[in-house]
User: Fold this.
Amino acid sequence: MQPTSRQHVTSKTFTSLLPAPFLIVGIVAAGFCVRAEAQSVETPQSSSDQVSRQPDNVAPWLRRWARENQRNNPAVLSAFRGIVENAGRSTVLVYSDGRQVAYGTVVDSAGFVLTKASELAGQTECQLADGQKLTAKLVGVHSELDLAMLKINDADAVPVQWQTEAHIRPGNWLATAGVDPTPLAIGVISVSSRRIARARAILGIQLDDGSSAARVTHVYADSGAEAAGIKKGDLVVALNKNPVGTAQELIDQLREFRPGDRVVLTLQRSDREIRAVATLQNSANTPLGQREHTTKSLGRKLSKRHSGFPRAFQHDSTLRPNECGSPVVDLTGKTIGINIAVADRVSTLAIPVTSILPVLEELKSGKFAPADIGSDVSIIQQREAISRWSRRLRTFQAKHRNTLSALNSARQLILQKPADATAQEALQKLEAQAARTQRSVKEARQRLAQLEQQASVELSAAP
Assistant:
């Protein structure tokens, strides 16, 4: 035995002998303990407060916060570069009408790319690691899994290596590959594969209770129905070409869809039959649902569709909605799933490889070809833009009214105290603010008028 030599082993030499995963665990644990000790030393409180600040009694959200901040440290992420290296070669950025909406995972050397379906709208492109953008063709959509198959002309496409031997177990480390050498995020599996319950999808209309027909009596603001141009008094006669005879039939048909799905409604308006394409929204858009959504997200942006998957496993990597579609790898570097949704403040869902492989060939073959709604996607985007600018106009108008009210009060004060310098300065500021809010209202009205002129407010029925 040579205790002297062992005592002189440097920390640098010791850490270099450890595998990356063990090093990460040590960093996370050490960082947490340092934070806990610092709190108990630097902020002396009463004896009861001191007890609550001991490491064993730290609030769970604080533990998670400490873990996430340690994991997002560049030095920690760099330790996983070798693990995501292969999967990174098979990862692309997915753009829809010029906006980056998701990541994509190359699954075939012929240029087939798997991504998140509900984020796609309009012209789709894939950006490779070298910055080159290629036009992508949508060849298949699996609505149950929310996966879309794209096809690009890339002779150098490298497919991911699937992990088909190891099981997905809670507590296992994983990493999400991106287009850069460093992973997008690292994390731990929280819950193994399970069914994720479906959220209720809503159209955003109220039907006539006194009539058996599906007649619209109210269209809710900022809803998919409003963006689609549905109006009070419209009679819904078909949904995706399926006849609708009663209000209950419409309700029953809508139950088959998920938030984020697009539906084509045939409407009877006066003596004309028109068509509208609406994007169904989550029931979280209702007042009660908005309160529940706020509690669930706590400021973190969630995916448009984050529920209703037949099988998905849950992990605690911190991702953004537009980072879904990226491959998730285990410590061997093989892909165990595809990130599909940011579900809440601390959870990301991923479709496991056992659910992906059985449908790959069918997605590539065109069996799950998307429904053809032609140019209606651009109509949806125009409607949604009109809805956004309508909200902005209402906000600007409210600000302008409040500013004018304050301006009138300031003018009344000047009449009473004409020599008051402070009142004069406040009046000048309010006059400048009123001019700005008036310009904002004018610009919003002009933009809204342009959008309404460009959009087809009433679509003719398809032949």
Remarks:
- Residues 116 and 147 are 5 Å apart (CA to CA).
